[in-house]
Write a structure and sequence with these properties.
The complex is a heterodimer. Chain A is an all-alpha fold. Chain A is built from 3 helices and no strands. Chain A has a domain at about 1-75. In chain A, about 65% of the residues lie in helices and about 0% in strands. By secondary structure, chain B is an all-alpha fold. The chains are: A mainly alpha, B mainly alpha.
Chain lengths: ~120, ~260
C-alpha cells in the first residue's frame, strides 16, 4: 500500500516538475510550481518526513509562487508605464513578457491592484 | 572560455561528481529499511534530552549551531531583499485603489484568518513534541496575515500590519538565538548546549533550550517572511518608476549651474 502511494507521489512529482520546466509563461509557471510543491509535500509525507513536508507546503506551494507572481506583475507594470500612456490605460502590448500565450485575462495594470 | 571548452569542463566535472555520488550511494543504508545508523543515534540522543520530536532535537539541540547559520541566512536574505527593493530616489508611491471583493471570498477570508493564525502558532508552540516547529509555523503565521489582502484589499493589510514592528521582531528573533547561545556559555557549558531542565517527556515544557530556540526561530521566520512579502507587495502594487523627464536641460551641453 505504501509502495503504491510512494510510486504515485513520485510520478506526480516527475510530471509536475517537467510541466514546470516546459511551461514558458511565468504566471502559469508559478501556478504549476505551486502544484509541484503540493506533490513534493505529499511525497515527503509518504516517506514519513512530516517536518520537511510542512516546510515544503508553506514555502514551496505558497510563498515562492506568490513572490514570482508579484515580480511578474511589477515587471509588466513598469514596462506598461511608458512616456505616453499612464499605468491605468489598459494592457500595453509592449509589456507582454510571455512568448506566445499573451496576457491572460486579469493581468492588466488597470485591474486595480489585485492579483 | 569557448562554448566547447565550457562543455568539456562541465562533462569532466559531471563525470567525477557522478562517480563519487554512485560510490557514496552504494554504501548508503537501503531505502525504507528498519535500521539507519544516524537515525538510531539521533533518536537515542533526542530521547535522552526528553525531546519527543527527534527532528526538533536535531535542529535545535544536536545541530543547534547549524540552525543558527540557517537562521542567519534567512535574516541576511530578507535584509538583502529589503535593500534591493527599497523605494529609490524618484520613485513614486501611489496607494492602489480600494477594490470590491465578492462577499463569499470576504467571508471565507474572515473565517480562515483566525484558524490559519491559530494553526501556525500551534505548530510553532508544539515544535518539540509534534512535526513542525518555528520555521514551518512561522511561515504559516506569515501567510495567514496575507489572507487580509485576499479578503479585503492592500490598504486593509497595510493598516493592520505595522511593518516596523515586524522588522524589530525579525531582528529580535535572530538576536534571541545568539543570546541564548551566549547564555549557555555563561552558564558554564558549550555554545548552544541544552542546559535548561529537560522536563517531562512529551509535554509543552519538555526539551529544555529547544523550546527557547524554537520560539526564537518562529518569531524570526514569521516576521522575516512578512517583511519580505511586504517589500515585494510594495513594489508590485504601490511603487512606480520615475516618470521619464523631458527637456529638463540634461541634454544641453555645458548647462550652467547656478
Amino acid at each position: 500500500m505504501t509502495d503504491v502511494l510512494l510510486a504515485l507521489a513520485l510520478l506526480l512529482v516527475a510530471v509536475t516538475a517537467t510541466a514546470a520546466v516546459l511551461n514558458r509563461e511565468p504566471v502559469r509557471q508559478a501556478l504549476v510550481l505551486s502544484f509541484l510543491g503540493l506533490a513534493l509535500a505529499l511525497l515527503f509525507t509518504f516517506v514519513q518526513a512530516p517536518d520537511v513536508s510542512l516546510s515544503q507546503l508553506a514555502v514551496g506551494s505558497a510563498v515562492t509562487p506568490l513572490m514570482i507572481v508579484l515580480t511578474v506583475r511589477k515587471v509588466r507594470r513598469d514596462a506598461g508605464t511608458g512616456p505616453g500612456p499612464g499605468p491605468d490605460s489598459g494592457p500595453d502590448p509592449s509589456a507582454n513578457t510571455g512568448p506566445a500565450h499573451g496576457r491572460s485575462g486579469g493581468d492588466g495594470p488597470g485591474e486595480g491592484g489585485r492579483r | 572560455m569557448t562554448r566547447r571548452g565550457r562543455l568539456v569542463l562541465f562533462l569532466a566535472a559531471a563525470a567525477v561528481v557522478a562517480a563519487l555520488l554512485a560510490a557514496a550511494f552504494v554504501a548508503l543504508p537501503h531505502f525504507g529499511g528498519a535500521h539507519h545508523p544516524y537515525g538510531e543515534r539521533a533518536v537515542r540522543a533526542a530521547f535522552a534530552h526528553r525531546t519527543a520530536n527527534a527532528i526538533a532535537s536535531v535542529n535545535f539541540d544536536q545541530r543547534a549551531f547549524d540552525t543558527l547559520g540557517e537562521e542567519s541566512i534567512l535574516f541576511a536574505a530578507v535584509l538583502g531583499a529589503l535593500v534591493l527593493l527599497r523605494q529609490t530616489a524618484g520613485e513614486r508611491r501611489r496607494p492602489p485603489r480600494p477594490t470590491r471583493v465578492s462577499p463569499a471570498i470576504r467571508r471565507l477570508g474572515v473565517l480562515l484568518l483566525p484558524v490559519t493564525l491559530l494553526v501556525g502558532l500551534y505548530v510553532v508552540a508544539h515544535g518539540q513534541i509534534t512535526p513542525g516547529g518555528g520555521f514551518q509555523g512561522g511561515v504559516v503565521v506569515a501567510t495567514a496575515l496575507h489572507l487580509l489582502y485576499v479578503a479585503a484589499d492592500y490598504g486593509a493589510l497595510e493598516r493592520l500590519r505595522p511593518l516596523s514592528l515586524y522588522e524589530i521582531g525579525d531582528a529580535a528573533g535572530e538576536a534571541a538565538y545568539a543570546v541564548t547561545g551566549i547564555a549557555t556559555v555563561l552558564a558554564g557549558s558549550a555554545f548552544l548546549a541544552n542546559v535548561l531542565p529537560w522536563g517531562t517527556f512529551g509535554t509543552l515544557s519538555s526539551a529544555g533550550t529547544v523550546v527557547v530556540l524554537n520560539a526564537a526561530v518562529g518569531m524570526e521566520v514569521a516576521c522575516g517572511v512578512v517583511v519580505l512579502l511586504a517589500t515585494f507587495l510594495d513594489q508590485a502594487l504601490e511603487i512606480e518608476k520615475p516618470e521619464p523627464r523631458q527637456g529638463d536641460g540634461s541634454a544641453r551641453p555645458g548647462g550652467g549651474g547656478g
